[in-house]
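Something for you to look into today, if you have time. I want to see for myself how the chain folds. Leave the record below and I will have a look.
***
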Amino acid sequence: MGSLDHTIHSKVDAIVVGAGFGGIYMCKKLVDQGLSVRLIEAASDIGGTWYWNRYPGAMSDTNSHLYRYSWDKEDLLKYPWSRTYLRQPEILKYLEHVVERHNLRQHMQFNTMMTGAEWNPETNTWTVQTSTGPNLEANYLVTGVGLLSKQNFPVYPGIDKYKGKLYHSGAWPKQYDFKGKRVGVLGNGSTGVQIITDIADYVKQLVCFQRTPQYVVPSGDKVATPEHRAEVNANYDAIWKQAKESAFAFGFEESTTPLMSVSKEERERVFEDAWQKGNGFRFMFGTFSDIVTSEEANEEAAKFIRSKIRGKVNDPEKARKLTPTDFYARRPLCDAGYYEKFNYDHVDIVDLKEAPITEFTEKGIKTADGIEHELDAIVFATGFDAVDGNYTSISIKGKNDETLKQRWADGATSYLGLSVPDFPNLFMILGPNGPFTNLPPSIETQVEFIEELIARSFGSSAETGSNRVIETTTKAEHDWTEMCDNISKDSLFRKADSWIFGANVPGKKKSVLFYFGGLGQYRQVLDAEVKSGYKGYHFY
């Protein structure tokens, strides 16, 4: 055993960490099973990622009718949404509604961070240390700490000298005011694009510091009319069936047509149709089947988007800086008028590859071209240490006194994105090498699988009087990791510096962090695992 204080103040069957989509559903499933459950959450209320990411313009990149749980049919048909894409406040309100509807708040403990966890082989339980002091003990530990929640906060020379206000998109304050202010935004991934699009209309000056230009497609967001809602409700069963059997669960049929198999005119028609309908995933995966596997097809898609950028941005120099030249091979982005904002005289862009940041000053940011950009506020839209960042930032110690951080020194791995050898009875929702998809359907899939595993174990322990242990095998993890690696080798995603492989965090080793085989295939893998009697696990 390690140095963690093992004085136990509370014992439950299961501890769930995180009150986002994953933690809420996991809590419900385990409570329904009859287990005693304690959900702990660092924030002061529910929401997970959507509690912290309340920055201006925060919006899901998934159609509203699919960015929710599928398991409550009555609620699906009745609960309202205002637009075809959900903003952060509406997502938060929905999650609050689910918690109240199913009376789950009584199992939740807020303002409580897991600061450490350690497996006790003598009792076959987890001891969890929290920020509020008392330790918790449980047979099962399920983490829903979020795919995108550990902030990536770059350090620049002189940052402590800056006298304006600093913000990070992942820890946005409830009170802020940018009206009439000079604002700098660092980063132009999904978050940066949304912030820039939102605040450009009311700031005095906006300077966008860009490392890598992005391919951004319209979202297609619009008011959700009664006719739209009626159509969705009439077809909800089929909509969910298609989503869960598809690769990305975004509600469209992924293309099976290679790009070069059709004429140039047909390519343009297909691209234009997808552009008008909106959604980044639809454009990348619903147009042609080989955009992320064929360099030739990828370049055709990229050329189409580049032409759109040049058509939207009037200033040739701004357009040049905003136009990407590399592969169209990062997580596809969508927007609500991003490029058009650069037609404002008070909105400018700094290419950090041409003029890197040299230092922060008392007044703002100085770049290598000698310009000092005077700013009242600076926003870090620099993303997250995705997937494994929250696991390696604290001590989670399994068997043999080994922490997850030590085990993952050469790259994060797991079996099915759920389990790690030598870490018994620990289950991760959206862990390393989980599916790369619309998240709520993936979360549901994983939670239901975890619940089945625990039900098998818990039921047996009740009969025998012992705490049965569930642990994945080293071979299962190795084979799954190898499969994820092999699938990703066919993708151009591997050739782009992206958070998808951890490239956005300085010093972090690039590694495969997702299963790119699609949700439908992933669900088949889990089904086969169940039918095999859980061959990738052993129970003891």
Summary: The two ends are 20 Å apart (CA to CA). The chain has 16 helices and 24 strands. The longest strand covers residues 8-17. The chain has a mean pLDDT of 91.
